[in-house]
């Protein structure tokens, strides 16, 4: 009896100890190697073809990893990590995966050298806290009363690795204007920049430089009928979430009629119910009606007669944004508490005007001068779908970065400057500790250098030499008080030299760097803690039942 208690029979494979760690690290390295070459201003793009043959060409770490269907549980952690970074910061998805994988690799070597994972984890945690503190105290530059120049530089830095880097001056201006135009102050008096208010519309044709910023929220659908007016001003907007069609009986409701003449009355009543609904809408003063569902031809007639614009099949997401911008309420049903059907005029949103314009080959409805928050649309032009999709991803990253810069007001130098400074600082810190964590912190310091190394390798430059020079500069900056300005020295990947990146305008929001280090460390720790993996075999006997 005692034997079976010691070694329970597991219906599955069990791997434990070093095997699991090695396997996890290998899996994470594999994921990191996929995105490694797409880091930096000279990174290369990836072409992903999914199971139905759709092609995606992208440079965005999160997109690449989302498209790969990763099976390995530890590698999945990295994919989720990239998505988290994409949600929280918006950019830096590639870096975060590379740093996490490198930290794991180093930790694995330490475990092989008989250092307990717990010591490594506490060392990593300490290093992470110290790094974040050091960035905030020594490396950040406050951008007081942000002028446009630092913002444009942040946007350009974020775009530099993407497809549109050639036109980065042009797009950076677009992005900064877009973000500044959605500025709003919330109830607590904080200034926020809701990026969701920026609608990105993609239209084929012309070149990327013909993209422009439109004031107003653009809906990618035309009017529901030709007889409707092209513009309505001032607009009262009703947002509905149900069908304006002939009211049909619910499924399973049967009507038994004795007299066939009653049928006509039933039909008539069905038509009249919709008519009454529409009249309620129009009586409330609505002259623009947006619905996520359909509108019947018969129902359209009433709108045309009233001179109102009706738009059907609007995307749910667009609807929410329009409702938010115009102060409307999404109405899902007319029924009120008494069981009657009413429509409250308070649910209407207001805008200066609603017009239909032609952009490229599509009709779009523009909602201009919205009441509560200002909404803008970026109209992207480009040669083909792949290019437009990639432009949209690049702009999304830049929009997020500009928003973060505006909200946090602090920037750091890009191009491997922060990572090298932290590496030099942490190495020094490690030598002052007499505890077990010393080795872990030294390895953490080394791992951060992966970013400048990969940047240099992708640019076809001599990585070893450049990183050595870079570290020498940062060492000087941290020892000599009069050489403080060296702390923003980073790589210039076009010429393969070292330069002061703050002056060269290669900057990123400090928050992005801090988050990269925090998320990467957390992910590495999560995977490092695993020392046993049990894969259960599917039980066949249950399937037969």
Distance between the termini: 31 Å
Helix/strand-derived category reads alpha+beta
Characterize the overall form.
Answer: globular
Number of strands: 22
Multimerization state: single chain
Number of helices: 19
Strand content: 15-25%
Helix content: 40-55%
Unreliable sequence segments: 1-5
Biggest sheet character: 8 strands, mixed
Determine Rg (CA atoms, Å): 29 Å
Look at the structure and give the mean pLDDT: 85
Give a structural overview.
This protein is of the alpha+beta class. Helices cover about 50% and strands about 20% of the residues. The chain is built from 19 helices and 22 strands. Strands 9, 10, 11, 12, 13, 14, 15 and 16 form an eight-stranded mixed β-sheet that branches. A three-stranded antiparallel β-sheet has the order 4-18-21. Strands 7-17-8 form a three-stranded mixed β-sheet. Helix 6 (about 115-140) packs antiparallel against helix 18 (about 510-530). It is globular and about 95 Å long.
List keywords for this structure.
three-stranded antiparallel sheet; 18% strand; 22 strands; 545 residues; single chain; globular; alpha+beta; 19 helices; eight-stranded mixed sheet
In short:
By secondary structure, the chain is α+β, with helices and mostly antiparallel strands. It has 19 helices and 22 strands.
